[in-house]
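Continuing the series of single-chain predictions for the mutant panel. This is the parent chain; the variants come on the following pages.
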Amino acid sequence: MYTASGYGIHGVSAYARVGLETGVIAASPHKLILMLFEGARTALSSALLHMRNGEITPKGEAISKAIAIISSGLQASLDVKAGGELAQQLHALYDYMSRRLLQANLHNKPEYIEEVARLLGELNEAWEAISLSPSSQAGDSSVQAAGLAAGYGKA
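Parent structure:
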């Protein structure tokens, strides 16, 4: 019924794209940040694989995608006024991550990609902990709001 060529691949791709778009539209600001972390980490995993296989073009594309998510997604959603020092530190950290990924791409340094992936993982865990706190599970959005005010006010 469905083949690997023609409509089948395009249909699956379109279905996945619609699912992602629906998830983004329905997501809370908190969930959107988690989705950005996930997307960046997935792109970094892909970049590592391509780097290890000597696949230059896909490696560069995956690193570029991760940089775009970090700078145009995570960093751009920071509200430095509302988030104060924490938001400023996150902004500097995202700058560092982007520069490190550029260096990884130029010099084929998988350890730089792994470093950025580790940093994103730590931030992701902290962000997930906000949604796991008892007060947020009880329906009180004050913890989530405090997290957003601490840095991601534009999300």
